[in-house]
């Protein structure tokens, strides 16, 4: 596989340089995966607009989906980033491990969401009817379903970009689920 270097600010378009400046101001750094998006003159801005768009899902619910999807897609970068973000959103280490496994014994509604996100990702959208029924029975709506599937797609794009480029992880590295569960 060819090596992808993480582009620096001076190696990206003027538009992406402005985005880098905003990310530095907001986060204190430009995550390597975001910088990798900046190899394209448009992908970083498009991704950030989509990722930050309005949704019916709460921030915590978005992290449930991000963790379950990233585990199915075996993306160590996104698992590491969303483990850190999950902790910032109040999830414990044990809860994060459960969410990565596609379940949440600590919350029935989040359990239905995690199971749906895992199932949609594993089955590439051919969702199991029982999982879908459980999602609706937990109180989610058809709008929540569409927002969840959109988020699965959003996260899958990042998972695939990292899987293809293998840029360095610049977050504390998440342990493999099997190791962490022991």
Automatic annotation (TrEMBL):
GO terms for molecular function: peroxiredoxin activity. Signal peptide: none annotated. Residues 43-107 form the Carboxymuconolactone decarboxylase-like domain. InterPro entries: AhpD-like, AhpD_core, CMD-like. This is Carboxymuconolactone decarboxylase family protein. It comes from Algibacter amylolyticus.
């Amino acid at each position: 596989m060819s090596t992808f270097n993480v582009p620096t600010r001076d190696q990206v378009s003027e538009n992406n340089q402005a985005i880098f400046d905003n990310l530095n101001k907001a986060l204190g750094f430009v995550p390597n995966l975001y910088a990798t998006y900046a190899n394209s003159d448009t992908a970083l801005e498009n991704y950030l607009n989509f990722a930050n768009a309005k949704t019916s899902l709460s921030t915590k619910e978005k992290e449930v989906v991000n963790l379950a999807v990233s585990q199915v897609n075996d993306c160590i970068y996104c698992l590491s980033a969303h483990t850190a973000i999950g902790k910032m959103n109040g999830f414990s280490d044990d809860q994060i491990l459960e969410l990565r496994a596609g379940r949440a014994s600590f919350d029935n509604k989040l359990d239905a969401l995690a199971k749906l996100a895992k199932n949609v990702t594993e089955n590439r959208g051919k969702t199991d009817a029982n999982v879908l029924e459980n999602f609706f029975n937990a109180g989610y709506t058809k709008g929540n379903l569409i927002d969840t599937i959109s988020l699965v797609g959003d996260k899958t794009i990042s998972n695939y970009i990292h899987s293809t480029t293998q840029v360095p992880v610049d977050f504390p590295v998440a342990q493999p689920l099997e190791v962490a569960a022991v």
